[in-house]
Design brief:
The complex is a heterodimer of chains A (596) and B (369).
Chain A lengths: L5 E8 L5 H11 L17 H6 L7 E6 L2 E6 L8 H8 L4 E7 L6 H12 L3 E7 L8 H12 L7 E2 L8 H11 L12 E10 L3 E10 L2 E2 L3 E4 L5 E3 L2 E5 L3 E4 L1 E2 L4 E5 L13 E4 L18 E7 L5 H13 L5 E7 L3 E8 L2 H14 L4 E3 L3 E2 L1 E4 L6 E3 L11 E14 L3 H10 L3 E7 L4 E9 L1 H4 L2 H8 L5 E11 L2 E8 L2 E2 L5 E4 H18 L7 E7 L2 E8 L15 H16 L2 E3 L2 E3 L10 H6 L1
Chain B lengths: L6 E6 L1 E2 L11 E2 L2 H18 L7 E8 L7 H10 L3 E8 L6 H9 L4 E7 L3 H6 L6 H13 L5 E7 L6 H14 L3 E6 L7 H30 L2 E5 L2 E4 L8 H7 L5 E3 L4 E4 L2 E5 L3 H9 L6 E5 L2 H12 L6 E2 L9 H9 L3 E3 L5 E4 L1 H5 L1 H8 L2
Parallel strand pairs in B: 1-4, 1-11, 2-3, 4-5, 5-6, 6-7, 7-8
Antiparallel strand pairs in B: 8-10, 9-10, 12-13, 13-14, 15-17, 16-17
Helix pairs in contact in B: 1-2, 1-9, 6-7
Chain lengths: 596, 369
């Protein structure tokens, strides 16, 4: 198809504003799927996505509308995935900006709209859910128009649920989104914007062809890594896989590479033809730096190789995932993993457990720190136990938080941010009811439970997004935890000096509850360097017997004993002390303690 | 090498009423069925006689309340059972009359296990026991008068409402009578029983207290010259070996045949449990066929584990031999270091130290591979 009949677009929306429903309706309307076969939210192929109602991986679907080829490139909607959104946006010329008619603009709407504008995309604004009784389409249309500098009359009003107005959306895409403008005769170049792995066919790359064209069986090369492979199969999704003999300039589709080693093809790289290679790759993506880290350890230490393989697979289409081997005295061999944020961490963990059937212990998350030892060089630390005892200076990452909230909750949000070492930056009214607040906060203050707190203090009305704004000095100390006199590396934490005592206190108290009584007294201590700041004791058991045992009781007693034995096997040995795996999560739950 | 089981258990399920905390197979009343049930027992004995050794070491009549059984039926049963060097009958104090004591003695019974439970009236009431403290004493003297020189008391601690002073007084009262043997159990209230329902909160309080109630029991009884020969069992130190030979058979992993409704036998690597339904049991044996049974094959590995689990309940060291294979060497070293286990120089034997015995459950779980 000639490029002037191609339109590549994404849908950007806050979570639950109806992106997936709109995508489904578009597929239905263009006969890509019959309504009988329609599963709700066709695009979200992973179970996990379907269950959580969020979209993790971008994926592209081709549909036909009035003689045009429309490629819908799906984008994730959550705060952690800004990076992936920008990846998807680079493969498009336009974006549908979808906003809920009852809820109005949310923090992510702002973030993603700005992202689209930065990527020079043409925006088609859409107010969705106009069928809701609480909908106020005109007010929301004014908000959007204000945001993107458009006329409110230009904002489409639809209900993806009922289908009302969806045809107008398709027409608007054809009319308002520019056609691709690559050179069909130039040496072929395609941007890899996503990939997946098929057990039989190897790495599958999702590409946007910019210049030239590709055909089946053609020898290809990934320009950054130099990996050579053959296009075993080309094609597109509509939404099921359809093979095609060529992919032309402007088109979006997939390339089956046959590559079995997932590390040899990277998202963001440019594919070119071996026969007539391009001189320069397309502009790639800026490397994103993970800012939240935690240790992932297999419950069963024999599963370490499986965990390594699984991480390698995930990394394939999750370039933001970072991992390096880590050895913990308490937890054995595992990986220190870096994530974009907490949700990203949670999703990686769930995918590892669900798709790869691994049982994991995930240590409490922490952020990256920059430290300068006395007379030493600055270095970055990803693990609290790597933080040197003696430091001259420490820096921690800061974010700019963007929060949109009904005006009656402004006080609650300010209080939360003050508690979290936040600095007020800016406040503006988006409408009479809704306020946009910005704060600067240490990232460490939001990695644990900030989002939950924000939601509960605003009855769920607040929306939140953030941007990294760099490292800043902080008065930080490392708190170590000693169980039975042995330091437990997996429980160390880095924390602001002012809250070290409270946290240390809360942590040892929580551990006292989590560690079962043993055959001897177990001291649990929190310490900064050699100074113990909190101490608790798990008193020794004095009695642990199966009272009476005669002929008729033996089988039952044996089973009880086996159960007790199995329970012990699930524990991790710290010196002589048996520590249940839950105890390693104790750091995560400290905030409950603080509140009460 | 097995020449047949040398230990026989006979279950008599009948009781005057059901005590709230009890989880044995029991049947209330049914006097009319007692004689018939005894015939069923004897029929089962006939069916299984082949698994018994020619000469038995022990016979144990348990329940239920064996002494609640119609005297004539009980007498017929005792007269028909094979002789043994230790014949024990469980008795509830309120059932022990002069006549009964004499009859038992005449029928070759030489050991009585008396279900005392407590000497405190308010605690006996909690346990649904109809007995008065004096009844216990009277029963005890009837038995002594009839010539019983081997009497055991069952005591229970951790009863809802029990104060430490109550337990102390119970132990003192028991010691004053001077039985040859004492079994002291913590009250095990099963979830979902009406007893647990009625006493839930108080049972939780008792669970905390139980830790040192157990220590108190061991301290008092060993202080009075009793040997703590098994986790919950004590015998007077004497020239006679006053340990329960029948129960020792269980703890040493010997084969035993058990007759009666709900009774569990273990012979030659096979364990079976008779149906707990009285009607089903009697019907089957009326037709001279074995009652419905639940069978549990015991692998070599399971048998060895059980022998470790049971053997470590005793004060005498467990001779390891082929049991070494199911014992975790490193756990032995660790537990020795903690003073919970002792072993001889070549690790041929294993025993728990006194402190290890208080923690016997957890320590055994540690020791098994």
């Amino acid at each position: 198809m000639t490029q002037d009949r191609i339109r590549n677009f994404s849908i950007i929306a806050h979570i639950d504003h109806g992106k997936s429903t709109l995508a489904d309706r578009i597929l239905e309307l263009t006969h890509a799927v019959s309504s009988r076969d329609m599963r709700e939210q066709v695009l979200d192929s992973m179970d996990l996505e379907r269950e959580r109602g969020i979209t993790i991986k971008a994926q592209a679907v081709r549909v036909e509308w009035k003689g045009h080829q429309l490629n819908l490139i799906d984008t994730p909607g959550h705060v952690d995935f800004t990076y992936e959104v920008s990846r998807s946006l680079q493969a498009c010329e336009g974006a549908l900006l979808v906003v809920d008619a009852a809820q109005g603009t949310q923090a992510q709407t702002l973030a993603n709209a700005y992202l689209a504008i930065e990527n020079n995309l043409d925006i088609v604004p859409v107010v969705n859910k106009i069928d809701l009784p609480s909908a106020d389409p005109d007010a929301v249309a004014r908000e959007i128009a204000d945001l993107i500098g458009d006329d409110p009359e230009h904002v489409l009003r639809i209900s993806a649920k009922t289908g009302q107005g969806v045809e107008d959306v398709l027409d608007a895409i054809v009319e308002r989104v520019p056609a691709p403008s690559g050179d069909p005769d130039a040496p072929a170049r395609a941007l890899i914007f996503d990939s997946s792995y098929d057990q039989y066919r190897g790495v599958v790359a999702f590409v946007r062809v910019v210049d030239g064209s590709f055909s089946t069986r053609e020898p290809l090369r990934a320009m950054a890594l130099g990996t050579r492979f053959e296009a075993e199969e080309l094609g597109f999704f509509s939404p099921t896989r359809s093979a095609a003999s060529t992919l032309e300039a402007g088109e979006v589709g997939y390339v089956i590479t046959g590559l079995k080693d997932v590390s040899r093809l990277r998202v963001g790289d440019t594919i070119t033809s071996e026969r007539r290679p391009a001189d320069a790759p397309l502009p790639g993506y800026k490397e994103v730096k993970p800012m939240v880290f935690s240790g992932l350890f297999p419950t069963d230490s024999d599963a370490y190789p499986e965990l390594r393989d699984a991480l390698e697979r995930l990394k394939l289409n999750d370039a933001a995932l970072f991992y390096e081997p880590e050895t913990s005295q308490a937890l054995g061999f595992g990986f220190r993993c870096g994530f974009l944020g907490l949700l990203h961490m949670e999703i990686v963990r769930e995918r590892l457990e669900r798709e790869f059937d691994l049982d994991l212990i995930v240590t409490a998350p922490n952020v990256a720190y920059r430290v300068k030892p006395p007379n030493g060089e600055w270095k970055e630390v990803h693990t609290p136990s790597d933080m040197p005892n003696e430091v001259e200076e420490v820096e921690e990452p800061y974010i700019e938080a963007s929060i949109i909230v009904p005006k009656e909750y402004v006080g609650a949000v300010m209080e939360l941010n003050n508690d979290r070492r936040g600095t007020f930056d800016h406040m503006e009214y988006l409408s009479e009811q809704r306020v946009h607040l910005t704060y600067e906060l240490p990232l460490a203050e939001i990695v644990l439970d900030y989002y939950d707190q924000l939601k509960s203090r605003t009855r769920g009305y607040a929306s939140f997004d953030y941007d990294m704004i760099g490292f800043r000095p902080g008065k930080l100390v490392r708190v170590d935890v000693l169980v039975g006199g042995e330091s437990v590396d997996a429980l160390s934490l880095v924390i602001h000096r002012d809250s070290a005592y409270d946290r240390g206190r809360a942590l040892v108290e929580r551990l006292r509850e989590e560690i079962p009584r043993q055959h001897f007294d177990v001291a649990i201590q929190a310490a900064i360097g050699a100074r113990v700041i909190a101490r608790e004791t798990v008193k020794a058991r004095r009695k642990d017997v199966l009272a009476k045992c005669y002929g008729g009781d033996i089988s039952r007693k044996r089973k009880l004993l086996e159960k007790q034995k199995a329970g012990k096997k699930r524990m991790k040995q710290v010196g002589m002390v048996e520590v249940p795996q839950e105890a390693f999560l104790a750091v995560l739950n400290l905030s409950d303690e603080k509140k009460s | 090498m097995s020449l047949g089981a040398r230990h026989l258990y006979v279950h008599l399920p009948f009781c005057a009423h059901r005590c709230g905390y009890c989880d044995f197979v029991t049947v209330v009343g049914r006097h009319s069925q007692h004689a018939e049930y005894v015939e069923a027992l004897l029929a089962e004995l006939e069916l299984e006689r082949g698994v018994l050794a020619p000469q038995l070491e022990t016979v144990f009549l348990g329940g239920g309340t064996p002494t609640f059984t119609e005297p004539a039926a009980l007498e017929r049963l005792l007269a028909s059972l094979p002789p043994a060097s230790e014949v024990t009958v469980e008795a509830n104090p309120e059932t022990v009359t002069q006549e009964l004591a004499r009859m038992l003695r005449a029928q070759g019974v030489n050991r009585i296990s008396l279900g005392v439970q407590s000497f405190r009236p308010h605690l006996l009431e909690v346990l649904d026991r109809v007995v008065q403290p004096d009844t216990v004493r009277r029963a005890f003297y009837h038995l002594r008068d009839a010539g019983f020189d081997n009497i055991s008391f069952d005591l229970i601690y951790g009863i809802p409402g029990q104060a430490p002073s109550d337990l102390d007084a119970d132990l003192a009262d028991a010691l004053e009578l001077g039985p040859e043997h004492l079994s002291c159990y913590e009250l095990e209230a099963k979830h979902g029983t009406r007893f647990t329902h009625a006493h839930g909160e108080e049972l939780e309080r008792q669970a905390d207290a139980m830790e040192w109630y157990f220590e108190l029991v061991v301290e008092r009884l060993t202080g009075a010259g009793y040997r703590w020969y098994e986790t919950a069992n004590f015998c007077r130190a004497s020239e006679r070996d006053l340990r329960s030979r029948h129960n020792l058979a269980y703890w040493l992993g010997r084969d035993y045949l058990a007759l009666g409704v709900g009774a569990v036998s273990t012979i030659g690597g096979r364990r079976w449990r008779n149906t707990p339904r009285l009607a089903g049991y009697m019907q089957a044996l009326e037709s001279e066929i074995a009652p419905e049974r639940e069978i549990e094959p015991l692998s070599h590995d399971v048998q060895r584990r059980e022998r470790v689990m049971l053997g470590l309940r005793l004060d005498e060291p467990l001779v390891l031999g082929d049991l070494a294979g199911v014992v975790d060497e490193r756990a032995v070293s660790r537990l020795e270091l903690l003073g919970l286990v002792r072993s001889d120089a070549n690790r041929q034997t294993l025993a728990l130290t006194p402190r290890g015995r208080f923690l016997g459950g957890g320590v055994t779980a540690d020791l098994l591979v």
